[in-house]
Model the fold of this input.
Amino acid sequence: MAFNWFKKLKNGLSKSAAKVQKSITAVVGKKTLDQETLNELEDQLIMADLGLRSASQIVEKLKSQKFLIEKDTKEISESKVFNVVANEISKILQPCEKDLFKKKIDTPCVLLLSGVNGSGKTTTAGKISEKLRKNNKKVVIAACDTFRAAAVSQLETWAERTGSIFVKGDDNSDPAAVAYKSMELAIKEKADYLIIDTAGRLQNKSDLMQELSKTCRVLSKLNKNAPQEKVVVLDGTVGQNAHSQLKHFDEAIGITGIIVTKLDGTAKGGVIISLAEEFKKPIYAIGVGEKVEDLDVFKADEFSRAIMGID
Ligand SMILES: Nc1nc2c(ncn2[C@@H]2O[C@H](COP(=O)(O)OP(=O)(O)OP(=O)(O)O)[C@@H](O)[C@H]2O)c(=O)[nH]1
Ligand SMILES: [Mg+2]
Done:
């Protein structure tokens, strides 16, 4: 299972890996790394979405270059550079490795999923509830997207598939009221988890952001810690715009962790590294496809190897 997941992740990130590898091939085959080459490498890594500090940390590591030289050819070895870079990336990502499914103190643990339109919130809600069901957890799912009927039925299908209790409100009803109702039910049902799916909203729409913080406030009336997890779901294909999304959702509700979806097929997967470097938020999970099994917890080492295209 773990092996299959790594294979899937590596396949999904192959375009991102090609981009990072390309930045490195420029330095391979040389006998020494001069400053010009190192500067070029740094620029390329930044262009591969890794972020300024990560890129300079990696290049700094490569400066002491003796250990990169292959004994027989006396040239800088590609596989050695790939390994060193993967190690550095892993170090940057390590602090963000947090298991979303670890034991929770509160019952129900309320997990609110936020994000811009189409980032993958509803699909992620379904995938998470499936994982929880497999661990014999009782789950309530709430459709707090009350604007689109299709959104409600999409989530209802996931709830049916995963044997979760489903809560919805009337069309165009107040999302905060639906959230409150779902939490009352989750408490009554002694559910382990309450997953709240919210409507997509652009991060610069302040009225919609206020509505989201109202939902959080209302939930905290039933338990001051709720929602215990305020997650922003980010689409991995958008690249640097993910920074602005995380920043604004964090300002509005105080994000406790992120989930990055659609890492399959994107060339911009490196954005996870720059997000980690800039925000240092836990990365709870990553998505690499539309199917229920295409989500798993984030492992720094696994991701670093996959984005370098090495095993
Ligand atoms: N390839 C790929 N597609 C994904 C992934 N996650 C979600 N999707 C697809 O992205 C599209 C949007 O997903 P939704 O879950 O509906 O997104 P949402 O954030 O709930 O959208 P709104 O409610 O409209 O804001 C769907 O077609 C999903 O199947 C992923 O990890 N990989
Ligand atoms: Mg949705």
User: Anything to note?
Assistant: The longest strand covers residues 229-235.
